[in-house]
Amino acid sequence: MSISFSKQARLLLKISFLVTFAESMLVPMYAAFTEKVGGSILDAAIAYGVFAIATGLAIGLVGTRQVFERHTWRFLMAGFVASVLCDLSYILVQNKWQLFGVQIVAGLASGLIEPAWDSLFTDGIQDSAAKHWSVWAGGTHFLSGVAAFAGGLIAAWSSFTVLFISMASIDTVAVVLCLRGRQRETSVDTTPKQKVSVAA
Question: Class of the 2-186 domain?
Answer without folding.
Answer: mainly alpha
